[in-house]
Amino acid sequence: MKRSIAIGLAAFLAGGAAVLVPHKMGWGQIALVALAIAAAALAAALAARLAAEERSRREVEAARRRLVASVSHDLRTPLASLRLLVESIDDGVVTGETRDRYLAEVRTHVAALSGLIDDLFELSRIEAGDIAWTMGQVELRELVGDTVAAMRAPAAARGIALAAELPAHELLARANAEKLQRVLFNLIQNAIRHTPADGSVTVRARTAAGEVEVEVADDGDGISAEDGRHAFEDFFRGGEEAAGAGEGAGLGLAISRAIVEAHGGRIWLERAKPGTRVRFTLQAAS
Predict the structure, then answer these.
(1) Cis peptide before 196 (omega within 30 of 0)
(2) Structure pTM?
């Protein structure tokens, strides 16, 4: 920052020197003025670049601190529970059915930790461009139908109706079917999580301007404009989840964004009232 201030001051002085040169000038004076102007422009450009680099450095550092804080929180809670459970089992404090229940809880926490670590590795690989996916022609009606069918039971357990609205004609996209299904699972799970009992979640797909567009819509409470601006960031959890009351580590939407963008598509929140609509696009297969 000090360097940018110094260069900015130099630019100001150089510009001032150019203005103070008399009106009637010889070629030598004109050359000096041209050099002064060029120096001022260069100094100003350098000052702007350094200021931008400083802002970028601060943003990266802030993002790093948020990442460390989020990972620490999401690791600390299950690890603390695991420690208590294992100590109780090891000390013989619990026996019989209680011991079996504790062991089941241990397996649940271990699975959650494994899922978090897998998600972190996948997100880091995608964002680093370390992608070795096989891309091909994917029939979206079949893929969406299979995914919705697989998620219908957990939705029903929460009292939520899950449905797909698909066109009669083929919907062909150029994609990796496994990764695309991961996006669908993430979006549907997120919608179910934020929809109250007796609510509904609907998955739609259509062609639009040479692309295939998919939408996952719910009729829950929706998302605020402020939370919407950060929804696809790593570890972001808005609303009640920000206080730690929600499920998940806040990586589902971030991974979905990374996968969609790696496919050359885009993902965004569409205005909806009531509820929330997440849409993404993929390149249509010829």
Answers:
(1) no
(2) 0.64
User: Amino acid letter at 149?
Assistant: A
**Which range of residues forms the domain containing residue 112?**
70-127
Pairing of strands 200-208, 267-270: unpaired
Asked whether 264 and 286 are in contact (CB, 8 A), the reply is no
CA distances from 40 to 27, 43, 156, 187, 194 (A): 20, 5, 68, 52, 55
DSSP class of residue 133 equals: P
| Residue where a domain terminates, one of 104, 127, 150 | 127
**Distance separating alpha carbons of residues 283 and 213, to the nearest angstrom:** 9
Is residue 149 in a domain?
Answer: yes
Residue 98 CA: distances (Å) to CA of 80, 85, 88, 107, 252? 19, 11, 10, 14, 33
In a domain, 64, yes or no: no
Residue type, 36: A
- Which one-letter amino acid corresponds to residue 147? T
**CB neighbour burial string for 113-128, b if at least 16 within 10 angstroms, e if fewer:** eeebeebbebbeebbe
**Are residues 265 and 186 part of one domain?**
yes
Residue-wise pLDDT for 164-216, tens only, equals: 999 988 889 999 998 999 899 989 988 898 898 889 999 999 988 889 999 99
